[in-house]
Automatic annotation (TrEMBL):
PANTHER family: UDP-N-ACETYLGLUCOSAMINE 2-EPIMERASE
E.C. number(s) listed in UniProt: 5.1.3.14
SUPFAM superfamilies in the cross-refs: UDP-Glycosyltransferase/glycogen phosphorylase
CDD domains reported for this sequence: GTB_UDP-GlcNAc_2-Epimerase (cd03786)
Organism: Leifsonia soli
Pfam families: Epimerase_2 (PF02350)
Family (UniProt): Belongs to the UDP-N-acetylglucosamine 2-epimerase family.
Keywords on record: Isomerase
Domain of life where this protein originates: Bacteria
Leader peptide range in chain numbering: none
All copies of domain UDP-N-acetylglucosamine 2-epimerase, residue ranges: 29-351
UniProt GO MF annotations: UDP-N-acetylglucosamine 2-epimerase activity
Record protein name field: UDP-N-acetylglucosamine 2-epimerase (Non-hydrolyzing)
Keyword Isomerase on entry: yes
Length: 358
C-alpha cells in the first residue's frame, strides 16, 4: 500500500516537524504542499534538508495572499485533489493556515484527521494561530498532544479522552537529526560570545513601536546580536523606515534550519518570538527570552529554559539577568526536555496507520 496517508504542510515549521513522521510512513506518505511558504528560503531548502520525497503535490496561488483567501482557496484546491484520489487519513501539524486547510477539508469530506501538536493554547484570540488551533481542535479525529499540559487543555474543552494521545513532540528528533548533520560555516562579525535573535510574528512586525523597541534592544544587549531576519521583518523595517537600526546588528537574511541550530548551539542566549524555538532550546539546553504578549508553550518557561518578556518589559534588563545567572547553564544541562523522548514521529506514524486501517 502506498500514498494512502496524506500529509498536508505548507510552512517551514511544518516541514521540519512533519519530517520525522513522513520518514516513518515511507511510501505510505502522500505529501501535499499548500504553498503558504513558497520560496526557497522558507520552503525549498527545508524540504531538501528533511529529505522529503520528490513526489510532492503542490497547490497554487496561495502564498502571499491574505489569510482568508489562503484558507478559502486552499480548501477548494485540496478538496478537488482528495475527490480525485481519496486518502485513508490526513495528518496536519500545528497552527498555520495550511493546518486549517488540511483539517477542514478532511472533515468536510469525511476523511479522518490527525492533528500533530494538538492542544496548544495561548488564550489570546488576537493571535491568528490561536484561531487556527481552535478550528482544528474542533474538527480533528485524533489529537496528538505533545505534553500532558496540552492534553489537559483538550480535555477541558470537552474532547473525549480516547481521542487524545500524548506522543511527545517531533521537534526533539528533528533537532537531534539537524545537529548530527554538517552545515556550511557562517562567518559572523564577532569571534566571541553572542546573542542569537529571530523576530517574525505580526504582533512584533506589524506595529512600528513594537518593532522599534526590539531593534533598539538588539543594539544595546550585553553581547553582540546576530539577527536571523525573516523576510517579513526586513520588509517591515523598510516600510516603517527603521532599517537604520539594522546597521548595528550582525544581520543574516538566509540560513537553513540546520545552520540556525548550529548557531543556536554556539549562542550564549537566544531572543525570539518563535514557537518552535521555545521547544528547540529545551533540546539545545540554551536560555531564551520570548518576546511576546503570551505563549502557548508554558512548559519551556516552567522548566526554566525560557522567560516571557512582554511589551512593557525591558529586553535588555531581562538579558542581563539571564546572562548574569552563573548557575543557569549547568541547571539547563541537567533538565530534561518537557517535549518527550524523541520517538514522537514513530508513535504518530503508527497512529496514522491504525486510523487508515479503520
Amino acid at each position: 500500500m502506498s500514498d494512502d496517508i496524506a500529509v498536508v504542510l505548507g510552512t517551514r515549521p511544518e516541514i521540519i516537524k512533519l519530517g520525522p513522521v513522513v520518514r516513518e510512513l515511507g511510501r505510505r506518505a502522500r505529501v501535499i504542499h499548500t504553498g503558504q511558504h513558497w520560496d526557497d528560503t522558507m520552503s525549498g531548502q527545508h524540504l531538501r534538508e528533511q529529505g522529503l520525497p520528490e513526489r510532492i503535490e503542490h497547490l497554487t496561488g496561495i502564498g502571499g495572499d491574505p489569510r482568508v483567501v489562503q484558507i478559502a482557496a486552499g480548501i477548494g484546491q485540496l478538496a478537488m485533489a482528495f475527490q480525485e484520489r481519496r486518502p485513508r487519513a490526513i495528518i496536519v501539524q500545528g497552527d498555520t493556515n495550511s493546518t486549517s486547510i488540511g483539517a477542514q477539508t478532511g472533515n468536510y469530506l469525511g476523511i479522518p484527521v490527525i492533528h500533530v501538536e494538538a492542544g496548544l493554547r495561548s488564550r489570546d484570540r488576537d493571535m491568528p494561530e490561536e484561531i487556527n488551533r481552535l478550528v482544528v481542535g474542533a474538527v480533528a479525529d485524533i489529537h496528538c498532544a505533545a505534553t500532558p499540559h496540552n492534553a489537559a487543555n483538550l480535555l477541558s474543552e470537552g474532547v473525549d479522552a480516547d481521542r487524545i494521545e500524548i506522543t511527545g513532540n517531533t521537534v526533539v528528533e528533528a533537532t537531534h537529526r539537524a545537529l548530527q548533520q554538517s552545515a556550511p560555516q557562517i562567518d559572523l562579525q564577532t569571534d566571541g560570545p553572542f546573542i542569537l535573535a529571530t523576530i517574525h510574528r505580526p504582533e512584533n512586525t506589524d506595529d512600528p513601536a513594537a518593532l522599534l523597541r526590539i531593534l533598539r534592544a538588539l543594539t544595546q544587549l550585553p553581547l553582540p546580536a546576530v539577527f536571523v531576519a525573516h523576510p517579513r521583518t526586513i520588509a517591515a523595517a523598510l516600510r516603517f523606515e527603521l532599517s537604520d537600526w539594522l546597521n548595528g546588528i550582525d544581520l543574516l537574511e538566509s540560513v537553513s534550519h540546520t545552520q540556525f541550530l548550529h548557531l543556536a548551539q554556539r549562542a550564549s542566549l537566544i531572543v525570539s518570538d518563535s514557537g518552535g524555538i521555545q521547544e528547540e532550546v529545551t533540546v539545545l539546553k540554551k536560555p531564551l527570552l520570548v518576546v511576546r504578549n503570551s505563549t502557548e508553550r508554558p512548559e519551556s518557561i516552567h522548566a526554566g529554559f525560557a522567560v516571557l518578556v512582554k511589551p512593557d518589559e525591558s529586553i535588555e534588563a531581562a538579558a542581563h539577568r539571564m546572562l548574569g545567572n552563573p548557575d543557569l547553564l549547568t541547571r539547563l544541562q541537567e533538565t530534561p526536555s518537557p517535549y518527550g523522548d524523541g520517538a514522537a514521529g514513530r508513535r504518530i506514524a503508527e497512529l496514522a496507520r491504525r486510523l487508515a486501517a479503520g
